[in-house]
Amino acid sequence: MAWVLLTFAGILEIVWAFFMKQSHGFTKLGPSVITIVAMIASFALLSMSMKTLPLGTAYTIWTGIGAVGAFIVGLMFLGEPANTMRIIAAVLIVSGLVMMKLSS
Length: 104
What we know:
Layout: H1 2-22, H2 29-49, H3 55-77, H4 84-103
């Protein structure tokens, strides 16, 4: 169950990162509210997952899901560049996440 909570926490991290970008520095109410609600929910789920998962594992997986997810969202919806170095960096992050999961 902790892994499910952690996965949803990571997905919510992607959500809040995207809507933070859309809030334009918290000047737009709707995206700002979504950002704050998603942040609180993400932290709550992360906290619940940490009841049974090690700190280093949970935090690494959470930030990794958020980082790679935000990268993918940026490519797909924000027209951000997909150059070789950025893709290699994302692959390395995913490789680290897989290794962290396997070591738990």
